[in-house]
Design brief:
It is a single chain. The chain is of the alpha/beta class and 775 residues long. The protein is 35% helix and 25% strand. It has a seven-stranded mixed sheet with strand order 1-9-16-15-12-14-13, with helices on both faces. It comes from Gordonia alkaliphila. InterPro entries: DEAD/DEAH_box_helicase_dom, Helicase_ATP-bd, Helicase_C-like, Helicase_put_actinobac, HRQ1_WHD, MZB, P-loop_NTPase.
């Protein structure tokens, strides 16, 4: 088969199997042409042994962007290289680091990745590169993460010159015990921050402060390391890395690497004929089921395929369904499909990574755990089951196929969701749109405060430190609370303070909940305690590596969820109650009877029940739950409307609740178009007379303490956000509302009341008022 026809021919054979060729799920097809490489000579400063090692691996000449980034790093400049997937960014940092090691037998380096899989892959690559070279026999690169046993950790601390880790372990296992790492810090020449685009939201804000604390420690011990950032997709690479490290950065963005032709297909599953959802709404074929069918089809065609699914649960469902389809159509291939996700035990992850890399597995359903730069050669196709939340992540996932310059196919399968539906019918909003700027807020006091305590515990805070963190007021608050003490030399922690363990930099609170099979006492996996009430509550269906379990008990005090094996023909989703108190208005704009504000709020939330849904999407029943309340101080974008203006727009008072509620749901579903988030990062509330405003009011808030920057972005891009929301609701073909427009899978009120037509009136009214000239 010729390369330039690979993607379209593979897709054509799949479409030929559709039962109704006139109702094709394909909404758009685009072909991205090939690009040729631009080479250059090896820099003169590269050590001959390093150059020989790369030449031995078949790299006779580097690409231009690799040398440009490496030159900047050698000159002592912090650099962010932002080029396409499979563009050889690893070489750009390996060149200066290995050359420094060859010339300085005492130098050390630190490599950070946001996922364990990527760190393991990069360590494997470096070990393979230097194998058999006597010049690097003393290097001993070593993994240092949560899967590393204690004996190897001690050995790495004493002997390794290149540590591969992640921000979590850097925070908990290195910075907190920095005295044991004195020699490593004192000789630290380079820090690599791989996949910079992944450091966004709460995780990015925590990671920024971990990095800044690391640089502070290195400088305290006499080193001044150069930071090299790498990312395939970020709008502002220099600014993004600069915010992470608190220093100036130079960006390299001109990509000189080749890539093969890529076919991109946008795919919208059709409606199920006989099935109705909540309030008799039409139900589309689930994205996970559609993706499973495509995965099975592609595997039968011999295409090595990755299928990205939004959730851990969806990953398991997709893999199981693909295996079932293959068991019927091609039994010999059924065991060559598997699931891969975070929460698996280390041995399971490593086994799956090897099987995928070796070609033993032909198809893998995965969360974004395999989105990042793990070098999986020879992949032919990628299925993206549900828009991943950002344009950056979409292209990162798409780039996993065709990594050796061959042709490839990428299929985005839309979920029954407003944003997904909008994108498959407005392809320019995805395929012609620039990648987003990363959203981080290291100055969030709920994030910065605990890190200041960690920094003070590592070494007393000086005036210069407090100035660098921009935290004078916050330090005074910590002193007033008795957590810091002022001395002549700076600020010291209160006696007995041990703040490192209190921070979960992934955004959760209180660590991990263990999930145990009570019939065998086997540890199945873990889940963040902040997500436990929603994902492993009593009665929840939990999937683990093609096995199905039902949760019997959730003990939040002991961080334990107990489960038994069961194969129910239904799924579960929680329902919650929320209330919002306005604390302070940060910014506000008035447009006559419309006021748009950015506010500090306190959200009180409680999981009250869960729905059981048949696999078709049909609601079976609602089961009450007794869960404790959660109180969340955060930030929200809020708008209010005068009641008379709503009435003048044809929305009578008894329609206010359904209109505002539906408009809130639709807006939450569409916020990801203007902010780097999805609906699970945010929450909302609507009311026809809020106690704090006395007016019809809609809130959309960040689901993290102190906020994560998403609501603020919604405030800044309010008109574009609401305009796209109105377009999505208007374009949906359902009569009275469905999950593709105004229904929400996480609605605490069971999607009641909702009024699609009146919601569209509200959205259009907002746009008219926002765009109207001042009186």
């Amino acid at each position: 088969m010729e390369q330039h026809t690979y993607g379209t021919e593979l897709l054509g054979r799949t479409l030929a199997g559709e039962s109704d060729p006139d109702a094709t799920p394909l909404t758009h097809l685009a072909v991205i042409p090939t690009r040729t490489a631009e080479f250059t000579e090896w820099p003169e400063w590269v050590d001959p042994a390093v150059r020989a090692a790369f030449v031995e691996r078949g790299i006779r000449q580097p690409w231009r962007h690799q040398v440009r980034a490496a030159d900047l790093a050698v000159d002592g400049r912090h650099v962010s290289i932002c080029t396409g997937t499979a563009s050889g960014k690893s070489l750009a940092y390996q060149l200066p680091i290995l050359t420094r090691f060859a010339q300085d037998p005492n130098a050390t380096a630190l490599y950070l990745s946001p996922t364990k899989a990527l760190g393991t892959d990069q360590l494997r690559s470096v070990a393979s590169l230097i194998a058999g070279l006597p010049e690097f026999s003393h290097l001993q690169p070593c993994m240092y993460d949560g899967d590393t046993d204690q004996e190897l950790r001690q050995w790495a601390r004493l002997h390794s010159r290149w540590i591969f880790t992640n921000p979590d372990m850097l925070h908990l296992g290195i910075n907190s015990t920095h005295a044991k790492w004195r020699q490593f810090f004192a000789r630290l020449a380079y820090i690599v921050v791989d996949e910079c685009h992944h450091y966004r939201g709460v995780f990015g804000s925590h990671s920024a402060l971990v990095l800044q604390r690391t640089l502070r420690l290195a400088r305290m011990y006499g080193a001044n390391p150069v930071v090299i950032g790498a990312s395939a997709t970020v709008a502002n690479p220099a600014e993004a890395l600069s915010r992470l490290i608190g220093d100036d950065v130079v960006a390299v963005t001109e990509d000189a690497s080749p890539h093969g032709e890529r076919t991109v297909a946008l795919w919208e599953p059709g409606f199920l004929e006989e099935t109705r959802g909540e309030h008799d709404a039409p139900v589309r074929r689930p994205a996970a089921a559609e993706a499973a069918r495509l995965l099975a089809d592609f595997v039968i065609e011999g295409a090595r395929t990755l299928c990205f699914v939004r959730s851990r649960r969806g990953t398991e469902i997709t893999a199981r369904r693909a295996q079932q389809l293959l068991a019927d159509a091609a039994p010999e291939l059924a065991d060559r499909v598997a699931a891969y996700r975070a929460g698996y035990l280390a041995d399971d992850r490593r086994r799956l990574e090897r099987a995928l890399s070796d070609g033993e597995l032909l198809g893998v359903a995965t969360t974004n755990a395999l989105e990042l730069g793990v070098d999986i050669s020879g992949l032919d196709a990628v299925i993206v089951a549900g828009y991943p939340g950002t344009v950056a992540s979409f292209w990162q996932q798409a780039g996993r196929a065709g990594r050796r310059g061959e042709g490839s196919l990428v299929v985005l399968v839309a979920r029954d969701d407003p944003l997904d539906t909008y994108l498959v019918h407005h392809p320019e909003a995805l395929l012609e749109r620039s990648v987003e700027a990363t959203v981080t807020d290291p100055h969030n006091p709920y994030i910065l405060g605990p890190h200041l305590l960690c920094a003070a515990t590592e070494a007393p805070l000086t005036e210069a430190d407090v100035e660098a963190f921009g935290a004078h007021d916050l330090v005074e608050d910590l002193v007033a609370d008795g957590l810091l003490r002022r001395r002549k030399a700076g600020w010291y922690p209160a006696p007995g303070l041990d703040p490192h363990a209190d921070i979960d930099i992934r955004g959760g609170a209180g660590g991990q909940v263990l999930i145990v099979d009570t019939t065998t006492s086997r540890l199945l996996g873990t889940v963040d305690s902040s997500r436990a009430k929603r994902s492993v509550h009593p009665g929840a269906v939990y999937l683990h590596q093609a096995e199905s379990f039902v949760i019997d008990e959730l003990d939040l005090h002991d961080s334990l969820a107990l489960a038994h094996p069961e194969e129910p023909d239904w799924t579960t989703s929680v329902r919650e109650n929320s209330d919002i108190e306005i604390v302070r208005t940060l910014r506000s704009q008035s447009f006559g009877p419309l006021t748009v504000s950015f506010v500090e709020v306190v959200v009180t939330d409680q999981v009250i029940s869960y729905l059981r849904k048949a696999l078709s999407g049909e609601i079976l029943d609602s089961v009450p739950l007794d869960m404790p309340e959660e109180v969340l101080p955060t930030r929200a974008v809020m708008y209010t409307l005068e009641p008379d203006t709503l009435i003048d727009a044809g929305i009578v008072p008894d329609k206010f609740p359904g209109a505002l509620h539906a408009a809130e749901h639709a807006a939450i579903g569409m916020l990801g178009l203007v902010a780097t988030c999805d609906r699970w990062d945010i929450g909302g509330l609507s009311t026809n007379a809020h106690s704090g405003t006395g007016l019809p009011t809609v809130f959309v808030y960040d689901g993290y303490p102190g906020g994560a920057g998403f609501a603020e972005r919604g405030y800044e891009a309010f008109a574009a956000w609401i305009s796209a929301t109105a377009d999505a609701v208007a374009a949906c073909g359902c009569r009275s509302g469905c999950p593709s427009c105004v229904q929400s899978p996480k609605c605490g009120n069971g999607n009641e009341p909702l009024d699609k037509d009146m919601a569209l009136n509200v959205l259009r009214l907002i746009l008219r008022l926002h765009d109207a000239p001042p009186a």
